[in-house]
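Worked example 4.2. Below are the chains of a multi-component assembly; read each line carefully before continuing.
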Amino acid sequence: MRLSDTIEQFIKDLMQQEQQAEIDLKRNELAEYFHCAPSQINYVLSTRFTPDHGYVTSSQRGGGGYIRIVRIVRSAPEQLNYLLNERVGDSISAGEAQILCRQLAERKAITAKDAQLMIAATSPAALSAPAPEAVKNVMRARILRSMLLCVAQRPAEASSEVNHHEV
Amino acid sequence: MRLSDTIEQFIKDLMQQEQQAEIDLKRNELAEYFHCAPSQINYVLSTRFTPDHGYVTSSQRGGGGYIRIVRIVRSAPEQLNYLLNERVGDSISAGEAQILCRQLAERKAITAKDAQLMIAATSPAALSAPAPEAVKNVMRARILRSMLLCVAQRPAEASSEVNHHEV
DNA sequence: AAACAAATTGACTTACTTTGACCATCTTGA
DNA sequence: TCAAGATGGTCAAAGTAAGTCAATTTGTTT
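Applying the procedure described above to all four chains together yields the following structure tokens:
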């Protein structure tokens, strides 16, 4: 078994056994534990804990630094993947983004307010900066992607957002 | 937990428990209490109690010297207005945007979820497109501004932080 | 075996925190 | 008045920890 696979499993077991959808790790400790280069940990993260795999990671450098891994629970990973990879893709127009956000709200995958904010963030006004339309569409896609991942990461809301309508 | 975080929390707890928007501290006493260099206190102030964080500090040297921390009090509309017209401006970094959004949530001008969404929309990941940092900061400012306007426009929420009845 | 893909490593970079030496300002008591 | 003492401020260096990238190695496929 590859070292990367072992590390992947180790992390997943940790999350499993702590019943947590979120876990904080110390990159250097992990690397030492597995007798590997610290950057190996980054490799594992970037090949096995991506949004496509249903995870989002973040980190903090410096003293007391950490790597945080959050498993996306709010939505089925496949559906999110569809949205992210096929619907949004690498580039999307303001109009398409708006339609998508409205639909998500209508299906109660996100709240009406989330939708407003997401539409505002991807509106022509928001991106009326000095850049050709093509570049703007690329940025829009990234912004939208970023917000969708954000929504997917947060825990489901109590009563309102019942789980039949997922992102 | 980092020492700086501990000190930050300690100060906030103090203000909380005294129900005061203002507090005077003795730098050396604090440093001694936490067994750290006095300048550590300055570090905490300059990274966690800036105007962006919603605080203003002042101090007095010499005998009977002190450090005074005052929490800025503004209504939600005032705060939004200030950010839109004075603070955000034409260009803003991801870090600054994050601090401002967190601050808005802390003041309950927006919900914690709105803040997460706004941070996601202005994060480095969201704008990791082919463009120099300066251009990205300009775009970030427009995106943030667009979202702030969106929030400012929607009707004031009742007692809504609690969105049990979101639908 | 050649070609391609995946994994591993390490040098270099960036980010955040802690510490300490030296500086500036204010109060107080001869 | 003014020197001594008491504070706080600044800044740069050291310490800690994660990120990037490209070269190399290992494994798989044809």
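Take a moment to check your reading of the output against the notes. Chain B touches chain A through 36 residues (CB under 8 Å). The helical segments of chain B are 3-17, 27-33, 38-48, 76-87, 94-106, 112-122, 133-153.
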